[in-house]
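Lab notes, practical 5.
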Amino acid sequence: MTNSSLNSQAFSQETGLNQPRLKVVTLTKDTTEKFLNVVKKFNVQAIEYKPFLRFYIANCLNELTDNELGTFLINNLQNRETGAILLECEGASEKDTKSEDFIDFNILLSTAVSHLIGLPNLDSMSGKFYARFSVRNEDNSDSYLRQAHRRMELHNDGTYVQEKTDWVIMQKIIESNVEGGESLLLHLDDWTDLQKFYEHPLAKENLHWSSPSSKNVHYKTTHPIFLDENKDGKPIMSYIDQFAEPKNMEQGLYLYELGESLENDNATYSVKLNEGSMLIINNYFWLHGRDKFTANKNLHRELLRQRGVFAENIN
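Output from the prediction step:
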């Protein structure tokens, strides 16, 4: 990794190894401990019940970084050339990661981060502004989200809801007996076949999108795979293979070929997350997925997800 200088001594940023678009942000041990002291008087239930507390802890975190962290996150997430951040904290010991206090701290931390970059949408799956879910060795769910022994294909979030989904936070809370399951990332501009599928006659044709019952979204939505171009005049995308409902052969074959192209693209980047770390991505020009896990009867990973809009898109 290569260092980039910042005025703040509260966090550092580096360029991801083998992926210059990914920025690795590390909160120093001092910053982490100070933020812990600030939020220890709050529990998770308090921020669930009182939305204004989410902005308060976000402001506290920003002040601990000389008011630089929020600006840095937004600038990078909205920059087409970057748009992806791996955020980590110094100073978490192995013992810390197995405690309830560690789990609560990380929910508070990701909440502070999400409210520095905008506002999370309601996650219908959980009925909250965030969702927690587990991946185990065996699963009978109705989507690929919790299924450990298959690759979760590259996709964008929010394809089946009416709200905008500008960004996604994916945080690893805890895990045990885990091998594999790395996060997968592909930037739209690195996709070899982007122009082929973007210039296709079906690229901006409305498709129907739905979701399984576990998502708790009781309507269907309609939109094209390639949305209007962003302010740079480049394409943005909203796609997931599981929830598209093609209405004819032409649409079905277009979706099949697009999915095959994405899954076989050599620019897909694998990221291993430590417990407590989080990936923050621009949802419209990054696709994400997950590699399969190695089978283990005691496999367990708990994840937290938030997704939402930048401040300028809040209604």
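Observations recorded by the TA: The mean pLDDT is 88. The radius of gyration is 19 Å.
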